[in-house]
Amino acid sequence: MWQDPIVKETRQLREQYAAQFKHNLNAIFEDICKRQANSKRKLVTFPPRKPEILRKIA
Known about the structure:
It is a single chain. By secondary structure, the protein is mostly helical. The chain has helices spanning 5-20, 25-38, 52-57. The chain has one domain (5-57). It has 3 helices and no strands. The mean pLDDT is 91.
């Protein structure tokens, strides 16, 4: 079966990253939050959207 090389590489990198934290989701989340806090990039947030059904009623 054909495998996309980009998907394969992405999955390998994800596995390596998770292995650094012994697949502990809390530790991974803390690392992501630290990286975000230390980033110089501008973060954008959008207001929550109403579900489609409520937009039709309003």
